[in-house]
Amino acid sequence: MDWLISAIGGAVVVIILRDVFHTLWHPTRHGGLSRLVMTTLWRLSSRGRRKRRAAGVAGPLGMALVVAMWALGVAVGWAVMYWPHMPEAFVFSSALEPTEHSQPVDALYVSLVIVGTLGLGDIAPAAEWLRVVAPLEALVGLALLTATVSWVLGVFPALARRRTLALRICHLRRAGVADEQLDCDTGATVLDALAADIARVSVDFAQYPESYYFYDGTGDTSLARSIGYAAELAERMGRAKHPGARIASSVLGAALDDLASVLDERFLRTGKTRPEILGVYARDHGGGM
């Protein structure tokens, strides 16, 4: 029975590590548990009168909750492994009575000390197998800390690229560029650069899906609000006389199709056409098209 309980704890650890792997290191997947946390928080924040203000903290708060879930899940899983083998498989300091410090809370304490690499030493593993398993928990704790820092450092540059793209589209819109001004080599270059930026954002959404749940507001840095103008440019320049401009508009249209596909497959799941998908994306982020 003791080993069955320990096996349950090991299963909890495996589930958490699988979620960490798919969220942080698999380029086209999103962990099931982390996705559930992020989507639930996003939907809750999008309700009510203060939905815009609440949506603004959904992304950062969601990431914090996911990291807390991972850390607590690992600690609890290892604690469940330790508990059935206390006190006989552990050594205690002279100030502690082993039979009085062998409860589940004590197992959780030991697990937290090990995963946090605190090394307090008042309760330490003595059994041979625990002297192997416990350092593994410490290594997992260090890996989780490093992975979390890498996650944050990856998500926020992705957000900066998305907001920069939105601002660039707004600049084009405010400039009131006419069709004849884009119907040339320079116009083709502008459209090509815009398509490249949209493709980069599509990759960001695929690689860092949690970035979707960061609200950009309704200003010029909101891609949900501005992406419709990029689609309008692609349609307008599809009738250009300059062959380079027509090719660039086709590339821009393809980039928009890819963006809509990523948004629909990973977040919206509407099964609709590109204009409809972009419209749903705009409404989901509080922007109109």
UniProtKB/TrEMBL annotation:
GO terms for biological process: monoatomic ion transmembrane transport. The keyword Ion transport applies. The chain crosses the membrane at residues 6-25, 57-83, 138-159. Residues 94-150 form the Potassium channel domain. Keywords: Ion channel, Ion transport, Membrane, Transmembrane, Transmembrane helix, Transport. The keyword Membrane applies. This is Two pore domain potassium channel family protein.
